Amino acid sequence: GHYLCCDNAQGARLATEHLVSRGRRRIAFVGGSTAGSPEFQLRHRGFVEVLSAAGLGPDPRLHSEAQSLEADGYRAGTALLDSGVPFDAVFAASDLIAMGVIHALQDRGVSVPQDVAVVGFDDIGSAADFNPPLTTVRQDTRLAGELLVENLIQLIDGKAFESTLIVPELVVRASCGARSAS
Q1: Taking Cα atoms as reference points, which of 170, 146, 128 lies closest to residue 7?
Q2: What is the DSSP secondary-structure string of 22-36?
Q3: Is the peptide bond between 58 and the residue preceding it cis, with omega within 30 degrees of 0?
Q4: What's the pLDDT tens digit per position in 76-113?
């Protein structure tokens, strides 16, 4: 089949590599990892690849399932804290989950990013204005739209449709403990 989407696994690799490069060693994953959420599953796969390559796990106890809802992120963040398993970073499969996790950590007196760094995925509109501003993986939705139109024209003309994975970029903000340029 034809597809046009963000390279979810690559985005997760960028996010996880960034956390590892900043000295984080006990990184939790919050999000779905089952076939029911294919995008999250790819994000989880990229996360696992980087941790395995770095010799850091992953630790199954630091995996909390969540749908892309702030309330789910909050519940998952609370569950991670309640588990007593130490962690110094969270890679959340979406920005909404990340925001919920951050609220849960803050409510329990855990400081972000000093104690726990958090990275999300999607770069939704409110990510830059969040407190702290959220480091996240941005998908080039405008490019996706342009490619979609081009591909539709190709199909109408009876030409082949190019399957495309759009390369995501990591947008670094304060929630991971790095000083951002912007």
Answers
A1: 170
A2: TT--SEEEES--STT
A3: yes
A4: 999 999 999 999 999 999 999 999 999 999 999 999 99
